Amino acid sequence: MFKSEPFCALTAGETIDGRVITQQDIDDVAETYDPKFYNARINDNHDHSRWSTRLGSVLSAEARGEELWLTIKPNSHLLRNVESGQLLHQSAEIKRNFRKSGKAYLTGLAMTDDPASVGTTEFHLSSKNRDEDTLIVLGNTIDAGHFSHTSELSKEDHRTLGEILASLLTRSHEPEQFSQQQEEDDMSKETEELLKQSIEQNSKTNDLLGQVVEHLSAQNKQEDTPPNAENNEQVTKLEGQVEELSSKLGEMGDQLEKLSKQTDEEVRDPAGKGGNEKVYY
């Protein structure tokens, strides 16, 4: 399965809207969270409606001082949003006094662009690939030093869309913990192959665009020189190749969209519905 490396999803203290996340909340969630007991699903901006799309599951939670760090198992919906620069932060859904236990529990995680808690990780797609079997990554944090595999960032880590595959999502060979959700969450081999093809086409497109820009820039510097027929022909040829690759990417995107819809699961009611207050951070 695909999973992220740990990232900071919540920090104890006052939120930007004046509420308070206590250290006890952080410690309780780290102590109590067990996906086998109650699996916290990932959603889009706390949308629990019946037509909303689930984005994956939370695998584990741990306290690191005043911070709550999570590991997640995303699906293709979440990865596509991150690729387009959307839903880059997290907002934890915590139920205090969960099942009258006296302790807080993580019942869900929302991906959002407007987190209430400070210090949350911002997701980006990275190009650093540790393992050729690794397909998709959920990038680095604002403080890249938090991640042992991305602490030495180079300019190549923020290159083109065609180089987005990388290191923070690892392919685990452990037995599936959630066999009932395997078909909903994990990408099929067909989806993986399409993603690989899409990335290869993106890389080719960006290379060709770079060549077009280079030729046009060279021509602009020679304004007093009569047009070079050979250069014009080469630019026209490159533009044709770019258009062809862009068309292929569009077709792949349509296929991926159809396949990604197969990851939906039956919608369940939020934990504690009708009971005590559930707090979103």
From TrEMBL:
Top-rank taxon = Bacteria
Q: Where is this region: Disordered?
A: 172-193, 217-281
Where composition is biased (Basic and acidic residues), the residues are 255-271
Show the InterPro entries listed in the entry. Answer: Capsid_scaffold_GpO
In Swiss-Prot or TrEMBL terms, this protein is called Phage capsid protein
Record the organism: Vibrio chagasii
